[in-house]
Amino acid sequence: MDIKLARTEIEGKPTKISVEKLEERLEAKGQKIFYFDKDNSHKDMMNLIDYFESKGRSVYFREIRYGLDESDYMYEVHII
């Protein structure tokens, strides 16, 4: 499964990353906070959470609003 990381620029395009790459980053640090783009569907985010919880990890998920517009948000996922 591929998921889109948060944009680094407002007009930029989000970059895709595989769940396996996320898992590799976690192995190096043990825990990590990831920011994902609003273009990801809520269902994909729930699948990501289920995947890591099935691996025995704790996952904290929330939406972060960074502007006044309804479309100004990103997803924050903290995996321990």
TrEMBL record:
Pfam families: HP0268 (PF18618). Residues 1-80 form the HP0268 domain. This is HP0268 domain-containing protein. It comes from Wolinella succinogenes (strain ATCC 29543 / DSM 1740 / CCUG 13145 / JCM 31913 / LMG 7466 / NCTC 11488 / FDC 602W).
